[in-house]
TrEMBL record:
Residues 7-61 form the HTH lacI-type domain. One of its GO terms (molecular function) is DNA-binding transcription factor activity. It comes from Microbacterium sorbitolivorans. SUPFAM superfamilies: lambda repressor-like DNA-binding domains, Periplasmic binding protein-like I. This is LacI family transcriptional regulator. Gene3D superfamilies: 3.40.50.2300, lambda repressor-like DNA-binding domains. Transmembrane segments: none annotated. SMART domains: HTH_LACI. Pfam families: LacI, Peripla_BP_3.
């Protein structure tokens, strides 16, 4: 077998010294195959690294009009439901069904699975929302099946690429400054989390650029406890009047911490979040936040795959307004 070529069913048959029909029956789960042949076939599969499972499934199902979306497997509490919904809706609009395949591991594991899916005859196209390795590039079409990379997540399903845009921090800091605020504090997610790091970096630059004062940053889990602890740790005579948070859960914790200390919002503190969680607009006095347009990203990603299937140019989307600040009652003038 040539170096770099993926093993085929016939390669397994040749190494195991059986017919390819026997290998086909093996991967289909035929119990009538003799044990000696089963052992040789399994040994050949292990030696070659052949992956028969999806092939066997495709042989049983023989589905058409099906597209696969490959995404990293994760144990994170938040999954990209809005983006997946938009991706699926775009496929449905063109008459396709979608199956989402969550793959543990990094780019190599995703590439293996994408190539396996393309080889199976089970799907008509494969879209990955995270990077592939060097085996997949523009125009990769094994067996005529397009494989498209539209990388908006990393291996942990954290935002990547265009999803890291933190430019709304500039607008948030600017508006707060216009309202008279001069003393800021930041509450963010874990250090090392890409989006959390980027939002803090842009916040910090925006504060410095306007000659304002940042009295530090509290970083921790992306949940309310980080926000509560951050506010409870501020001195009673803290000059901070504006708290800028990296997501809405953190901001909810800030609101609770302020309430426990008897600090009104926005009378004593102005507070902002990010992500536009639905509950935010119902938390008194209404949380100022950032809407992230996951739907446009999802539609564009699937549209790129569909364009490849139809031999058309990929859609061009303007992501400069991917994020929009929504001003609500949690922001007011400096006290």
């Amino acid at each position: 077998m040539a170096p770099g070529r993926r093993p085929t069913l016939k390669d397994v048959a040749r190494l195991a010294e059986v017919s390819h029909q026997t290998v086909s029956r093996f991967v289909s789960g035929d119990p009538a195959i003799r044990q000696a042949n089963r052992d040789r076939i399994q040994a050949a599969i292990d030696e070659l690294g052949y992956r028969p499972n999806i092939v066997a499934r495709s042989m049983r199902m023989r589905r058409k009009g099906l597209l696969s979306v490959v995404a990293p497997a994760t144990t994170a509490p938040h999954t990209p439901a809005k983006m997946m919904s938009a991706t699926t809706a775009e496929a449905h609009a063109f008459g396709y069904e979608v199956e989402v395949v969550h793959v543990a591991g990094g780019a190599s594991a995703r590439t293996n699975r994408a190539l396996e899916l393309a080889d199976s005859g089970w799907v008509e196209g494969v879209l990955s929302l995270a990077t592939f390795d060097e085996r997949v590039g523009p125009g990769t079409r094994p067996g005529g099946v397009p494989i498209i990379e539209f990388a908006v997540y990393d291996d942990q399903l954290h935002g990547a690429g265009i999803m890291l845009d933190a430019s709304p921090m500039i607008e948030i800091v600017g508006r707060l400054a216009e309202l008279g605020h001069r003393d800021f504090f930041h509450v963010g997610g874990p250090v090392g989390h890409p989006a959390s790091d980027e939002r803090f970096a842009v916040y910090d630059r925006a504060v410095s650029a306007r000659g304002l004062t940042s009295h530090g940053s509290a970083r921790g889990p992306f949940d309310g406890s980080t926000g509560v602890e951050a506010i409870e740790a501020l001195p009673i005579d803290s000059p901070v009047t504006a708290v800028v948070c990296a997501n809405d859960e953190l901001a909810a914790g800030v609101l609770l911490g302020a309430s426990r200390r008897g600090w009104s919002v926005p009378g004593r503190l102005s507070v902002t979040g990010w992500d536009n969680r639905q509950v935010g607009k119902y938390m008194p006095p209404g949380l100022t936040t950032v809407i992230v347009d996951h739907e446009t990203v999802g539609r564009t990603a699937m549209g790129t795959l569909i364009a490849a299937l139809r031999g058309e140019p990929a859609p061009v989307a303007d992501f400069r307004e991917l994020n929009t600040v929504v001003w609500r009652g949690s922001v007011g003038p400096r006290p």
